[in-house]
Amino acid sequence: MKLLTATSRTQGDRDNDFTFCVEGELVMVTPFVCETDRRDPDGGCGCGRSFVGLNSGKATTTALVSDLDFTPEDAAEAIRSALQRSKLVSDDEIPSIIEDVLELADEFPVGTVLEQRLGDVNSRI
Known about the structure:
Blueprint (H helix, E strand, L loop, with lengths): L1 E5 L20 E3 L5 H5 L11 E3 L5 E2 L2 E5 L4 H15 L7 H13 L6 E5 L2 E4 L2
Antiparallel strand pairs: 1-5, 2-3, 3-4, 5-6, 6-7
Helix pairs in contact: 2-3
């Protein structure tokens, strides 16, 4: 199934790019955006323009649409586990976030590098 993974491809295309995730790690759009980044996602801490690694909890400004050997149930459990560990969202919010994460990758072809600004995800290439 298609899921988003951390990538260093196109890193540096924007002067405020960063990547602290493990290459190939499952990522999702950061579920929490601080007040500073809500005013300007290109300033502040970067949470308004990043994806977060499900395992490391670290961030990157680029994600790759990857075709992985996951079932929807496996992917949902990985997302659920990461969200519960983060404690940034309530348990009630988790099902809708999982649904959004699983639907997002389906919108783009495999191999597409993505970026995001306040949840608005677009192709870089």
